[in-house]
Amino acid sequence: MSNNSIFIKKLRSSGLRPTKQRIKICKLLFDRKNTFHFTINYLNNILKNKYAEKISLATVYNTVNAFKKKGHLKEILISSDKSYYDTNVSNHHHFFDENKRELIDLDDKDVGKINIKKALPGKKINSIEVLVKIANNN
User: Fold this and answer.
1) What is the percent of the chain with per-residue pLDDT over 70, rounded to a whole number?
2) What does R_g of the chain's alpha carbons equal in angstroms?
3) Phi-psi map region of 15: left, alpha, beta (phi>0 left; psi -120 to 50 alpha)
4) Separation between Cα atoms, residue 65 and residue 7, nearest integer Å
5) Cα four-point dihedral sign 113, 80, 29, 61
6) Domain residue limits, the chain
């Protein structure tokens, strides 16, 4: 998928000007076969190691947030101060390995039926996504 026009189109559809730095971010996020889970700092470190050209942290934040706002990325809140992002934007579940600090996809077939017994007035449930936190049993 390494055709830059695909990345330029994705950037423009997200309201971003397709600069060299943003195209590099877009390629890193979306030019892959498998789902990619990442934090902003992890993505920034990969970019630093992969490219000689410096990409500012602000550019990384702004690009990721624009992709999230447009629906190209999903944000998974692990705690009040820790977010991961996912290139798979479909409704699905996750394990979070607290020892490795790693997010792992969990298939719908591996989660039984979820029954929500409480309703909020004027609200409807759009989706249910389970986050299962795991750790070594030491």
Assistant:
1) 99
2) 17
3) left
4) 16
5) positive
6) 4-84, 90-134
Residue type, 71: G
The count of other CB atoms within 10 Å of the CB of residue 78 is 16
What CATH number is given for 4-84 in this structure?
Answer: 1.10.10.10
Per residue in 103-120, pLDDT (tens digit) is: 999 988 889 888 898 889
Q: Are strands 93-97 and 131-134 parallel, antiparallel or unpaired?
A: parallel
User: What is the tens place of the pLDDT at every residue in 69-111?
Assistant: 999 999 999 998 999 999 999 989 999 999 999 999 998 888 9
CB atoms within 10 A of CB 81: 6
Strand-pair partners of 116: none
For residue 112, the SS3 value is coil
| DSSP E strand stretches across the chain | 37-38, 74-79, 82-86, 93-97, 102-106, 131-134
